[in-house]
Amino acid sequence: MNAQEMYEKMKARLDKVVPDVELRIKAELAAQIVNLKQEKNAVILGHNYMEPALFYSIPDFTGDSLDLSRKAAQTDKDVIVFCGVRFMAETAKILNPSKTVLLPAEKAGCSLAASITADDVRALKAKFPGVPVVSYVNTYADVKAESDVCCTSSNAAAVVESLHAETVIFLPDEYLAKNVARETGKHIIFPALTPSPSPAGSGEQLEYQLIGWRGRCEVHEKFTVKDIEAVRAQFPDVVILSHPECSPEVVAASDFSGSTNAMIRYVQQTKAPHFLLLTECAMGDNIAAANPEKDMLRLCMVRCPHMNTITLEDTLNALKLNRYVIEIPEEIRLKAYRAVERMIQIG
Ligand code: 13P
Ligand code: SF4
User: Fold this and answer.
1) CA-CA 20 to 30 A from 3: which of 63, 162, 239, 274?
2) Ligand 1 centroid vs 153 CA: distance in angstroms?
3) Mind listing the pLDDT tens digit of every residue in the chain (347 residues)?
């Protein structure tokens, strides 16, 4: 594909979203990436939070974390370029280890994944022996390796319920855990990791069913009920959607809460005069580009600083220079694979 063809393809979608000069520069980069992708027999996976010019040009597949994990597991290409953050690229490597997995920006992390270590999980397991551990997919491979099963925002409650356990450890997102507790009718606690006799072994009556951790998404924790009230006062007929990494108060004050894919579907299938998304800003732009007839309000003081580091320039360099290669020690990968694969089986 040449740059002009790419420009025309992008222009058709992004005319109202990306200024024309920027579009021309980005189309040039995108055309080079698509050609190199074919040469290197690579597949590009793009998370829903990618900026519009990237989202609508180079990915073979776009989607939420669960969806993209499945695509990574199924691909027969030699190289997987993950336009997302490190834990997502790691999940691709866990599921499809014979492929070269590239993350275009080395430092594309995640505040949730950084909030917990494998040692923390081991300490929790020692404190609550025999209690199964569910880890959000927004964790690194060594944390997944200490877990019984993973979940994403689209299947968290189903994964917890699939365990049929009286008590479950749910890590590391405090807000997602509270939202899951509410959805599944479970009482949640947040234990301190100080040495104390195991409550499970002490014969005490357990009055909680979910054990959480105080990790937070640095983007979603910023939305407040006050924001929602201010927007509803100005636009009484607005439909508000929030990601389940928002606080339970924000989720309760919203009209719908779900994974990034679920939010996109909801907007597509719902007739409303205005929509407000409480999630990473780029996704609102991507939905607006695909649904020009929908009025998307913006409350965009927050972009994810990690997702934001993935650019077309970096993606081109990733393919040119074969960087940054995701490596996971095999003994950790094998243990993490069990937890991720179990999640995928649940759906
Ligand atoms: P999804 O699984 O809903 O795409 O969410 C990933 C994420 O990092 C949200 O902040
Ligand atoms: Fe992590 Fe939040 Fe960024 Fe998602 S939006 S990658 S949870 S920091």
Assistant:
1) 63
2) 7
3) 899 999 999 999 999 889 999 999 999 999 999 999 999 999 999 999 999 999 999 999 999 999 999 999 999 999 999 999 999 999 999 999 999 999 999 999 999 999 999 999 999 999 999 999 999 999 999 999 999 999 999 999 999 999 999 999 999 999 999 999 999 999 999 998 765 544 444 444 457 899 999 999 999 999 999 999 999 999 999 999 999 999 999 999 999 999 999 999 999 999 999 999 999 999 999 999 999 999 999 776 678 999 999 999 999 999 999 999 999 999 999 999 999 999 999 98
Instruction: Name every protein residue with a CB atom under 6 angstroms from any ligand 2 atom.
Output: 85, 110-112, 138, 217-219, 245, 280, 304, 306-307
Q: Whose CA is nearest to atom 4 of ligand 1?
A: 64
Global pTM value:
0.94
Rounded distance from Cα 154 to ligand 1 centre (Å): 9
Which residue, judged by its Cα, is nearest atom 2 of ligand 2? Answer: 217
Q: Whose CA is nearest to atom 6 of ligand 2?
A: 110
Q: Give the 3-state DSSP-derived string for the chain, with helices as H, strands as E and coil as C.
A: CCHHHHHHHHHHHHCCCCCHHHHHHHHHHHHHHHHHHHHCCEEEEEECCCCHHHHCCCCCEEECHHHHHHHHHHCCCCEEEEECCHHHHHHHHHHCCCCEEECCCCCCCCCCHHHCCHHHHHHHHHHCCCCCEEEECCCCHHHHHCCCEEECCCCHHHHHHHCCCCCEEEECEHHHHHHHHHHHCCCEECCCCCCCCCCCCCCCCCCCCEECCCECCCCHHHCCHHHHHHHHHHCCCEEEEECCCCCHHHHHHCCEECCHHHHHHHHHHCCCCEEEEECCHHHHHHHHHHCCCCCEECCCCCCCCCHHHCCHHHHHHHHHHCCCECCCCHHHHHHHHHHHHHHHHHC
